[in-house]
Amino acid sequence: MNNGRGKIYIKRTLEEIIHKFLHSPEIIAILGARQVGKTTLMRKIYDTVSLKKIFLDFEDQEICSLFDEDPKGFAQLYLESTEVVFIDEFQYSKKGGSNLKFLFDKYGTKFLISGSSSLDITIRAISSLVGRVFALELFPLSFEEFIEYKDPELSRILKDRFKRQEPIHTSFHRQLFEYLQEFVIWGGYPRVAVSESAEEKYEVLKNIFITYLLKDVRGFFRLATESNMQKLTRLLALQVGNLIRYNELSSASELSYPALKNHLKILEETYIVKLLKPFYTNKRLEVTKNPKVYFIDTGLRNYVCRDFRSWDLRTDKGSLVENFLCAEFVKRNLEFNYWRTKSGGEVDFVVQSPEGVIPVEAKAGDRPKPGRAFYSFIGKYKPSSGYLFYGGPMGKKEHLGISINFVPLYASHLVEF
Question: What's this model's pTM, rounded to 2 decimal places?
Answer without folding.
Answer: 0.92
